[in-house]
């Protein structure tokens, strides 16, 4: 089993670059909503998605996390959204500004005949720093905390066993793993324009300076896990 011994997400000293929303003009908002409708129409249907298993993770800005899991073989679809809180129907503005108890999270649809839940857990820990409390890179707040969600006792054990392995191997030196191991309850889909955000907004400053470098570090260390077109 591959263990990554160094954190991948390096804190960038770019105060103006973050995953939090910026004020938009009405024209920009209208254009964004129209683009979202077109893009969401290309996603797999609910009927098609029923053929696959699901897994849920939170490890910082969901733009980054979605792109990472999308690059993994056996993963059929990934959605950005919100989970881990009790508030109903949260919005991006509410979550990103810490007005709820939710974290930015992803919903991963995968084929267990190609990739296992254990391997997805490995991807999760290998693509972010699980020792930074309520922070990933330039994004700070509980909404960016590290969470591995489980749907049953078997998944819980897989997560806990992998954390124990990382600790026994001293993977992060004297830094403690602060990832929450939390029972999955509800996933709220994020607004349409967040889906595949990195892929559709390559020139966004956050994407260029934080998200793409994070994805590339993951790819360099998990080459055998990548889809053919992700190399």
UniProtKB/TrEMBL annotation:
Signal peptide as annotated in the record: 1-21
Catalytic machinery residues: 61
Keywords: Oxidoreductase, Signal
Domain Peptide methionine sulphoxide reductase MsrA: 54-206
UniProt entry tagged with the keyword Signal: yes
Chemical reaction(s) catalysed: L-methionyl-[protein] + [thioredoxin]-disulfide + H2O = L-methionyl-(S)-S-oxide-[protein] + [thioredoxin]-dithiol; [thioredoxin]-disulfide + L-methionine + H2O = L-methionine (S)-S-oxide + [thioredoxin]-dithiol
UniProt xrefs under SUPFAM superfamilies: Peptide methionine sulfoxide reductase (SSF55068)
Pfam family, one: PMSR
GO MF assignments: peptide-methionine (S)-S-oxide reductase activity
InterPro entries with a match to the protein in the record: Met_Sox_Rdtase_MsrA_dom, Met_Sox_Rdtase_MsrA_sf
Database matches in PANTHER family: PEPTIDE METHIONINE SULFOXIDE REDUCTASE (PTHR43774), PEPTIDE METHIONINE SULFOXIDE REDUCTASE MSRA 2 (PTHR43774:SF1)
Sequence similarity: Belongs to the MsrA Met sulfoxide reductase family.
Functional note: Has an important function as a repair enzyme for proteins that have been inactivated by oxidation. Catalyzes the reversible oxidation-reduction of methionine sulfoxide in proteins to methionine.
Descriptive protein name: Peptide methionine sulfoxide reductase MsrA
Organism: [Muricauda] lutisoli
Protein encoded by which gene: msrA
